[in-house]
Amino acid sequence: MPNFLHSWLSNDIAIDLGTSNTLLFVRGKGIVVNEPSVVAVHQNPYKKDRVVAVGGDAKEMLGRTPHNIVAIRPIQKGVVADFDATVAMLKHHIARVHGRMNLMKPSAVICVPVGITEVEKRAVREAAESASAGEVFLIEEPMAAAIGAGMPITEPSGNMIVDIGGGTTEVAVISLGGIVYSHSIRIGGDTMDKAIINYIKKQHSLLIGERTAEEIKKKLGSAMYEEREETTIIRGRDIVAGVPRNLEIRAREVVEALQVPVSAIVDAVRMSLERTPPELASDIVDRGIMLSGGGALLRNIDALVQRETGVPVHLADDPICGTVLGAGKVLEEIDQLRQVLKH
Q: Same structural domain for residues 249 and 302?
């Protein structure tokens, strides 16, 4: 392992290149960037600097741009979907952290989905290198999330982590610093948002955008029906009349809208338990299942997984930042954790 990770001059970074958010951790400083994974660019290919906005500013433009500007989500289902936009986004964040004139290229540990292909791995590496990163190492997201959640991943015992991100849900059983079994489905928080959009369109003939769907999910979303019935007023475009219209939507309807993606996540956990070696499964029953990722904040999803599996379920202390914190811990404790990195 190169000595750069031990250098007191090191400006190494850990990156969680998520479908919903991109987070950067700098060794010795902690999390310095937590921005939506959105880039707004000019449509004109001859324009010298096509990037209009990155992160939160670009997300504000979703659904509101003129014809010559488009807001792009460069990461889809946890992998690079638009290479140039990903490079632009990483360049922006790295320059913001280290300055544009910094001559030392930061080495990077980047979180990637566990089921990622070699082609997709190469796209991540090349995007980071094009964005002025030095040597690039990869770490599987559930491994990073488990480290970030404080799980004893180097012990000879079974640890199950369920990382519910924006584009993917990854279930992994970890022992002795390695992933013994993993299962990944391309369902996450974005799938939940789309399910809400489709439900409201079908049931109420009202068209709403991604941002409105996300707000509904955060305010009324739940994995299980509850006795108390909350409501909220939303605004969208009437499909029939073509004009704006207000609608009062109930929490019960949101639960119904989310049933398909939530059931798929629960099924993935159940199937993973069934396929886990017996000795490790016994450890998981004793220790419980750890939920991480932004999707783990959906109300009652921990209770539903516990009810359907019969295994205790715990929520990570920091579900949203846990993955990048885990990758950052690898940077800071490289001697103990180097085995989890993939070159």
A: yes
The CA radius of gyration of the chain, in Å to the nearest whole number, is 21
3-state secondary structure of 137: strand
Residue 238 and residue 117 share a domain:
no
Residue with tokens 């004009």: 243
Residues 6 or more apart whose CB falls under 8 angstroms from that of 6 comprise 334
Tens of pLDDT along 123-162? 999 999 998 888 899 999 999 999 999 999 999 999 999 9
- The tally of domains found in the chain comes to 3
pTM (2 d.p.): 0.89
Q: Which long-range contacts (CB under 8 A, 24 or more apart) does 330-338 make?
A: 330/14, 330/109, 330/139, 330/144, 330/147, 331/5, 331/12, 331/13, 331/14, 331/25, 331/27, 331/109, 332/27, 332/28, 334/1, 334/5, 334/6, 336/154, 337/147, 337/154, 337/177, 338/1
CATH (domain of 122): 3.30.420.40
Q: Is there a single domain that holds both residue 294 and residue 267?
A: yes
